[in-house]
Amino acid sequence: MATERVTETEDGVVRERVIERGGGTTVVERGGGGGFAGVLIAVAVIAMVAVAGFFLINQNRRENTETAAVSQVAESASDAAKSVGNAADAAAENIRPR
User: Fold this and answer.
1) Distance CA 52, CA 59 (A)
2) Where are the domains of the chain?
3) Chain-centre distance of CA 32, in angstroms?
């Protein structure tokens, strides 16, 4: 008759069960462990996504602010050119003989 010896150990994180059979066969089952590492990796990935999102949002705001400033300067230059044109027309009217 075959003999069988079962040894079980658990340290709170990993559970191990060893089964030794008389015919020289040994079976080792391990369970548990790795749970905390998975949670830690998930938190790190979420933090990286949050930081990347923060930088992208700030870059978009900065670009919008720059675009608004350039548009305002262009509009001011257009208004100034119109004023110069109106002044030139008025000066030309004063020079022409009547």
Assistant:
1) 11
2) 1-33, 35-98
3) 32
Q: Could you give phi then psi for residue 24, rounded to 5 degrees? A: 95, 5
Structure-token pair, residue 2: 């075959």
Specify whether the CB–CB gap between 28 and 17 falls below 8 A: yes
SS3 58: helix
Distance of CA 18 to the CA centre of its chain: 45
Convert 6-42 to b/e letters by CB count within 10 Å (16 or more is b).
eeeeeeeeeeeeeeeeeeeeeeeeeeeeeeeeeeeee
Read off the DSSP letter of residue 25: -
Q: How far apart are CA 81 and CA 70, in angstroms?
A: 17
Distance between CA atoms of residues 91 and 69, nearest Å? 33
Q: What is the pTM of this model?
A: 0.42
pLDDT digit string, tens, across residues 10-54: 776 677 777 777 666 666 666 666 677 778 889 999 999 999 999
